[in-house]
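fold-stage: in
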Amino acid sequence: MNNSLWPLVKQMDVVSTSVLLILFVMSLICWTVTLYNHFVLRARIRELKRAQELLKSVSSWQDFLSKASTLSDTYAGAMLGVYLTEFKTIAVMYTEKNLPIPQERWDLFKEYLRQTIDDVMHQEELFLPVLSTSAVVSPLLGLFGTVWGLVHAFMGIAQQRSADIAAVAPGIAEALITTLGGLIVAIPALIMFNYVQTRQRMFEFQLASLADRFSAIIKTTRN
């Protein structure tokens, strides 16, 4: 099959070749985005789960600080550091006066945690539209290449004044190559989109769980 397709690809005109090149670049980008999300999110989800298991048995504020320090080189430790810095900013006046933190301050802090998670997810989802767009656009690009190729094939028939199958088949086959290329990009891109979206939702859930655990720890040990 490769031996029969390659000569057809080589004899394509500039437009059809450009369509195939665009499809190839789209496929490359899709695989890059998917592999990045797979390996990076897998590591981060693992670290977030480990942090939650470690913090389950926290009995005091000092115990929390001690266990959190063991996570300093991980993604979960970095998130805890961000949460802790904001908590100290909000609670410093009450801690100095040895007063309980009012409920409105807790609500403000929880809103900050939600906003932090939203900001993280916004960054993670920046390239997600690439996958969905590729899944939608690549079949249309393939169809465009097919129509363009068919137009050229029929123009060739008109010039040769012959509709012999031997004369028509190569042009039609050449035209259909772009449709094949579009489907080869679109089908994996759709699968990748659903996979990455599922992994990101799992990542968001783990972030929210860590934030909830941190909020529960400081409320029971610092209030």
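fold-stage: in (second)
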Amino acid sequence: MTDVDHDLEWNDCLQDGLDGELDPAEQASFDTHVASCPRCQTRLKRLESLDQALQTAAPPVSLDASFDARLFAKIDDVDETRRAAARERVQSEMQLELQLLARNWRRTLGVIVPGIIAGIALAFSLAAYFDTSELMRTLVAESASDVGSAGATFIHMLLTSMVGAAIGYTIARWLTPAAN
């Protein structure tokens, strides 16, 4: 094993051993290795010296017993304040969207319903025209001979409804851009 590989493998373990963060099995392996490795002994002594110098230069900070309680209370206050602000923002956005939806729905309904009514009125007018037209008489007569009198009435009603629906749809589509 090269020196670089050795250092990569043991550097973190040396610091963990110095800090007392190894479990008993790792500690036993660590103690055995350090006892037989001059390189790790030297490195461990340097780390111990550095650790001692840091402790001397910056003594440990001591906090009173109420520090954790005050800290967690501030965190809870900030979180609750943010949650309340977010909840208020979402509720106001939802109210605005509902108002917009209601306004658009009424506007759209106010345009489409007259269009549908106009389409139905036009369909009835066309039905009256078709009843007297030569084309309708020919279609009904030909269908009556093929499907019978009840079928011919149904075909007549179906054609009139389709024409009325198409005209109503066209009028509604024509009026819809006016709503927006």
